[in-house]
Design brief:
Strand order of the largest sheet: 1-9-8-5-4-2-3-14
Order of helices and strands: HHHEHEHEHEHEEEEEHHHEEEHEEHEH
Number of helices: 13
Oligomer: single chain
CATH architecture of the largest domain: 3-Layer(aba) Sandwich
CATH superfamily of the largest domain: Type I PLP-dependent aspartate aminotransferase-like (Major domain)
Helix content: 25-40%
Number of strands: 15
Largest sheet: 8 strands, mixed
Strand content: 5-15%
Structural class: alpha/beta
Amino acid sequence: MIKRDAQLRTDILKLVEEYYEARFAKRAFNPDADFVHYAGRVFDADELVKLVDSSLDFFLTASRYSDQFENDFAEFFGLSNACIVNSGSSANLVAVTALTSPKLGERRLLPGDEVITVAAGFPTTVAPLVQNQLVPVFVDVNLGDYTAIPSRIEEAIGPKTRAIAMAHTMGVPFDLDTVMRLAKQHNLWVMEDNCDALGSRYRGQLTGTFGDIATVSFYPAHHITMGEGGAVITGSDLLGRIARSIRDWGRDCYCAGGENNTCGKRFSQQFGTLPFGYDHKYVYSHIGYNLKVTDMQAAIGVAQFAKLEGFIERRKANFQSIHAMLESHGDRLILPRATPNSDPSWFGFVITVREDAGFSRNDLTRFLEANRIETRNLFSGNLLRQPAFMNIEHRVVGDLTNTDIIMNRTFFIGVYPGIDEFQLEYIGSVFERFMRGERIN
C-alpha cells in the first residue's frame, strides 16, 4: 500500500509538470495587446509541484514545508528566528505588538510612547502603531531615494521616543548608520519594514538584520511570493518566541504542532490566577491572533526562495536598463537613486515629475496606462491626508513638503523579473513618444 501511494504521488506530480507546460508556458510579448505589469508572480513547474505535493499530505496547517521555509529563511539572513505569517501587514502587526510584550520588562512599549516613522509609505507600516496605542512621529523624506531625511530623524527624538519603525522604501535602505547610532545612543527599539527590500544590502549587510526585529512580505508583487504571506525575523530568541506567541493566539506554550511538554513543565507552573498546574498549552500570555499560513503556501515559498538570488539580479538589471533609457530626461523627471552605502534590491522604478516639466504626473501615467504599461502611485502619498489617518494622535517634526510632492507628482513602474528585454524596449519607446510630445486627448 505504501509503495502504491508513493507511485501514485510520483505520477500525479509528473502530470503537474506537464500541466504547467500546457497551461503556463511563456509566450512571446505582443506590444499591441499585452500589458507590462508593475509587478507579478514569476514561477515555473516547481511551485505547482510543491503546492500539490503539500496538498496530498492534507495536513493543511503548518507542517514540513513551513519548517523548511522558516529554517532556510533564517539561515539566509543569518538570524536565529523566522516566523512566517499570513501577510506582510500581519508581520508588521506582530513585530510592533511584540515590542509591547510584558516579557520585555521595563523596555516594553507602552500606550503613549512615541515611534519615529514616515508618512510617505504603506499604511500598514504605521497602522500597528495606532493599533497598539503608540504615537507615530512623522518626518519628511528625500526625493529620489524616498527614505527618511537623516537629520529629521535626530530632530524627532524627544522624551517619549522609544522606537524607530519605518520601511526601506521601494527596496532602498534608509540611512542605517544614523538610525542605529541614534538607537544605541537613546536606547531605542528599531523595527525594519523590509517588505519591499528582500535582498537589499547596506554596507554589504542584508537589510532586516540591523534592527531588533524586521518584517518581509510574500504578496505576489514582492520579491518572492506565497500568494499571501509574510515573515517576522529577529536575532533575539526572546522576541522570536514573543512573535510566535502573538501569531499563535497569544499562547504561552511554544510547542511545535503535534508536540507536547517541550518545556518539561506542562502541568507544574503557576500563571496569573489560574489554578496551579493549569495545562500550559492553554495559557495565554499575550493578546494574540491566529496569523499562521498553510503548509501549501509555505510549499510555494520554498520553491520561490530557491529562485531569490536570480530574481534579485533580474530586478537590478531591469532597473539599470530603465534608468539608462530615461537618463536623458533628467531635466523633467527625478529618477530614483540609491542611498549612500546601499545596494538596493529594487521593488520598482520610482519617478517624480519635476515642477517645471511642462506636464503633470497624470498626463504621463495616463499615457503609459493607455499604452498598457501599468503604473502605481507611491502607496499612500501623504498618509496623514488619508481618511483613516487624518485624526490619529501623532506628531510631525518640521514639514512634510517632499511627502506632499510625492502625493502629487510621484509614481512607479515595474522592474520585476517577469519584464523581459522586449518589454523593456517597449517601455523605452513609449516614454520616448511621450517626451516628444505625444499625448492622450
